[in-house]
Amino acid sequence: MELTHFDEAGRARMVDVSAKEATVREAVARAKIYMQPATLEKIRLGQISKGDVLAVAQVAGIMAAKQTSTIIPMCHPLNITGAKLDFKLIEPGTVEIEARVKVTGKTGVEMEALTAVSVASLTIYDMCKAIDKNMVIGDICLIEKIGGKSGHFVREE
Description:
30% of the residues lie in helices and 31% in strands. The protein starts with 22 loop residues before the first strand and ends with a strand. Strands 2-3-1-4-5 form a five-stranded antiparallel beta sheet, with helices on one face. 32% of the residues are buried. It has 157 residues and is of the alpha+beta class.
Protein backbone atom coordinates (compact mmCIF):
# COMPACT_ATOMS: atom_id res chain seq x y z
CA MET A 1 0.00 0.00 0.00
CA GLU A 2 1.30 3.42 -0.98
CA LEU A 3 1.69 6.17 1.63
CA THR A 4 -0.10 9.18 0.18
CA HIS A 5 1.16 11.88 2.54
CA PHE A 6 4.55 12.09 0.78
CA ASP A 7 5.38 13.62 -2.58
CA GLU A 8 7.82 12.24 -5.16
CA ALA A 9 10.76 13.79 -3.28
CA GLY A 10 9.68 12.22 0.01
CA ARG A 11 8.41 15.47 1.54
CA ALA A 12 5.21 15.64 3.54
CA ARG A 13 2.12 16.90 1.76
CA MET A 14 -1.59 17.16 2.26
CA VAL A 15 -3.38 14.73 -0.06
CA ASP A 16 -5.36 16.42 -2.85
CA VAL A 17 -8.97 15.26 -2.52
CA SER A 18 -10.50 17.81 -4.91
CA ALA A 19 -11.41 15.19 -7.55
CA LYS A 20 -13.12 12.85 -5.06
CA GLU A 21 -16.89 12.65 -4.65
CA ALA A 22 -18.41 13.74 -1.35
CA THR A 23 -19.96 10.75 0.42
CA VAL A 24 -21.30 10.02 3.89
CA ARG A 25 -18.48 8.82 6.11
CA GLU A 26 -18.42 7.70 9.73
CA ALA A 27 -15.77 6.56 12.17
CA VAL A 28 -15.91 5.05 15.65
CA ALA A 29 -12.91 5.16 17.99
CA ARG A 30 -12.38 3.95 21.54
CA ALA A 31 -10.03 4.68 24.43
CA LYS A 32 -9.77 3.63 28.05
CA ILE A 33 -8.49 5.39 31.12
CA TYR A 34 -7.49 3.20 34.04
CA MET A 35 -7.69 4.57 37.58
CA GLN A 36 -8.01 3.66 41.22
CA PRO A 37 -11.43 2.19 42.10
CA ALA A 38 -12.02 5.10 44.51
CA THR A 39 -11.52 7.58 41.66
CA LEU A 40 -14.08 5.79 39.51
CA GLU A 41 -16.52 5.82 42.41
CA LYS A 42 -16.06 9.58 42.89
CA ILE A 43 -16.75 10.11 39.17
CA ARG A 44 -19.86 7.92 39.42
CA LEU A 45 -21.14 9.85 42.46
CA GLY A 46 -20.27 13.31 41.09
CA GLN A 47 -17.77 13.95 43.88
CA ILE A 48 -14.88 15.37 41.83
CA SER A 49 -14.27 18.95 42.97
CA LYS A 50 -13.79 20.30 39.42
CA GLY A 51 -17.33 19.27 38.43
CA ASP A 52 -19.12 16.70 36.28
CA VAL A 53 -16.17 14.85 34.79
CA LEU A 54 -18.01 13.00 32.04
CA ALA A 55 -20.03 16.04 30.92
CA VAL A 56 -16.88 18.12 30.59
CA ALA A 57 -15.02 15.26 28.84
CA GLN A 58 -17.93 14.88 26.42
CA VAL A 59 -17.82 18.53 25.41
CA ALA A 60 -14.01 18.44 25.18
CA GLY A 61 -14.14 15.41 22.89
CA ILE A 62 -16.68 17.00 20.56
CA MET A 63 -14.67 20.23 20.44
CA ALA A 64 -11.51 18.23 19.70
CA ALA A 65 -13.15 16.38 16.81
CA LYS A 66 -14.06 19.73 15.26
CA GLN A 67 -10.49 21.05 15.69
CA THR A 68 -8.53 18.01 14.52
CA SER A 69 -7.14 19.68 11.40
CA THR A 70 -5.57 22.41 13.54
CA ILE A 71 -3.44 19.94 15.50
CA ILE A 72 -2.80 17.05 13.06
CA PRO A 73 -0.76 18.61 10.23
CA MET A 74 -2.02 16.66 7.19
CA CYS A 75 -5.71 16.43 8.17
CA HIS A 76 -8.19 18.26 6.00
CA PRO A 77 -10.56 20.71 7.69
CA LEU A 78 -13.95 18.99 7.73
CA ASN A 79 -17.48 20.19 8.29
CA ILE A 80 -18.42 17.61 10.92
CA THR A 81 -22.11 16.73 10.67
CA GLY A 82 -22.30 14.71 13.88
CA ALA A 83 -20.17 13.84 16.88
CA LYS A 84 -21.22 11.77 19.89
CA LEU A 85 -19.26 10.44 22.85
CA ASP A 86 -20.39 7.66 25.16
CA PHE A 87 -18.81 6.55 28.42
CA LYS A 88 -18.90 3.21 30.22
CA LEU A 89 -17.81 2.96 33.83
CA ILE A 90 -16.25 -0.47 34.23
CA GLU A 91 -15.41 -1.90 37.63
CA PRO A 92 -13.04 -1.86 39.32
CA GLY A 93 -11.46 1.28 37.81
CA THR A 94 -11.87 1.92 34.08
CA VAL A 95 -13.69 4.51 32.02
CA GLU A 96 -14.19 3.43 28.41
CA ILE A 97 -14.78 6.27 25.96
CA GLU A 98 -16.29 5.77 22.52
CA ALA A 99 -16.64 8.49 19.89
CA ARG A 100 -18.77 8.33 16.74
CA VAL A 101 -18.07 11.09 14.21
CA LYS A 102 -19.89 11.68 10.91
CA VAL A 103 -19.31 13.84 7.87
CA THR A 104 -20.48 14.18 4.29
CA GLY A 105 -17.22 14.89 2.54
CA LYS A 106 -14.31 13.83 0.39
CA THR A 107 -12.21 12.31 3.17
CA GLY A 108 -12.85 10.21 6.25
CA VAL A 109 -13.21 11.12 9.91
CA GLU A 110 -10.98 8.49 11.53
CA MET A 111 -8.58 11.08 12.89
CA GLU A 112 -11.45 13.16 14.26
CA ALA A 113 -12.86 10.18 16.18
CA LEU A 114 -9.41 9.22 17.50
CA THR A 115 -8.74 12.81 18.53
CA ALA A 116 -12.11 12.99 20.29
CA VAL A 117 -11.42 9.96 22.51
CA SER A 118 -7.86 11.11 23.17
CA VAL A 119 -8.89 14.57 24.33
CA ALA A 120 -11.82 13.20 26.34
CA SER A 121 -9.33 10.88 28.11
CA LEU A 122 -6.95 13.74 28.79
CA THR A 123 -9.84 15.79 30.18
CA ILE A 124 -10.76 13.01 32.59
CA TYR A 125 -7.13 12.84 33.67
CA ASP A 126 -6.99 16.61 34.17
CA MET A 127 -10.15 16.69 36.24
CA CYS A 128 -9.12 13.77 38.48
CA LYS A 129 -5.34 14.19 38.76
CA ALA A 130 -5.57 15.88 42.17
CA ILE A 131 -6.75 12.60 43.69
CA ASP A 132 -5.17 10.03 41.34
CA LYS A 133 -1.92 10.76 39.53
CA ASN A 134 -1.49 7.06 38.65
CA MET A 135 -4.18 7.06 35.96
CA VAL A 136 -3.15 5.52 32.64
CA ILE A 137 -4.65 6.37 29.26
CA GLY A 138 -4.52 3.56 26.73
CA ASP A 139 -6.11 1.27 24.20
CA ILE A 140 -6.81 4.13 21.78
CA CYS A 141 -7.96 2.56 18.53
CA LEU A 142 -10.24 2.79 15.54
CA ILE A 143 -13.21 0.44 15.96
CA GLU A 144 -15.07 1.03 12.72
CA LYS A 145 -14.92 3.11 9.54
CA ILE A 146 -17.79 3.44 7.09
CA GLY A 147 -17.64 4.99 3.62
CA GLY A 148 -14.95 6.09 1.24
CA LYS A 149 -12.88 4.28 -1.36
CA SER A 150 -11.44 1.71 1.06
CA GLY A 151 -14.93 0.69 2.18
CA HIS A 152 -16.13 -0.63 5.51
CA PHE A 153 -13.60 -1.52 8.21
CA VAL A 154 -14.40 -3.22 11.51
CA ARG A 155 -11.65 -3.94 14.04
CA GLU A 156 -11.29 -7.59 14.91
CA GLU A 157 -11.43 -7.91 18.69
